[in-house]
Amino acid sequence: QVQLVASGGGLVQPGGSLRLSCVISGDILSLGVIGWFRQAPGTERELVAAIRGESSTAYEDSVEGRFTISRDNAKNTVYLQMDDLKVEDTATYYCDAKHNGAWLKNWGQGTQVTVSS
Predict the structure, then answer these.
(1) Are residues 79 and 42 in contact, defined by beta-carbon separation less than 8 angstroms?
(2) Spatial distance between the Cα atoms of 59 and 64, rounded to a whole number of angstroms
(3) Are the C-beta atoms of 20 and 79 separated by less than 8 Å?
(4) 3-state class of 62 per DSSP?
(5) Residue 52 confidence class, pLDDT cut points 50, 70, 90
(6) Residue 30 near residue 96, CB atoms below 8 Å
(7) Closest of 80, 27, 75, 31 to residue 53, by C-alpha
(8) Nearest-angstrom CA–CA distance, 116 and 11
(9) β partners of residue 34
(10) For residue 42, what pLDDT is reported?
(11) DSSP assignment, residue 89?
């Protein structure tokens, strides 16, 4: 069974950076798509970044140019590098993966990112 655990959140000032990690227990190569989601209080959960294979990536418009998703197969880890953070990036961040065409939706607790001065 594939499990994904997100970590690396914290408190950062506007304009700062964080790198989130998603450690995958299982075969990372068996997962077609891995994505980062976020949900702020009172909002819908949204997909902000996704990676397919080694290098095919996509981003939500509001994070394009600021966030970078990548993977390290040797470490079974997917990263979300977040630069130039804005207050509106404040949310709980989750990672998930598609397996056999469907999101696993084993969300866990996620990791909290708070951007505040």
Answers:
(1) no
(2) 6
(3) yes
(4) helix
(5) very high
(6) no
(7) 31
(8) 7
(9) 51, 97
(10) 94
(11) G
Q: Is the dihedral of CA 101, 53, 91, 3 positive or negative?
A: positive
Please give the structure tokens belonging to residue 71.
């993977």
Residue 74: phi, psi to the nearest 5?
-65, -30
Encoded tokens for 20: 């989130």
Tell me whether strands 77-82 and 67-72 are parallel, antiparallel or unpaired. antiparallel
Instruction: Kindly report, residue by residue over 57-93, the tens digit of the pLDDT.
Output: 999 999 999 999 999 989 999 999 999 999 999 999 9
Location of structure tokens 């509106």:
88
Q: Which two tokens stand for residue 25?
A: 């227990």
Cα–Cα distances (Å) from 35 to 3, 38, 90, 114, in that order, read: 14, 10, 18, 20
Asked whether the beta carbons of 63 and 49 are under 8 A apart, the reply is yes
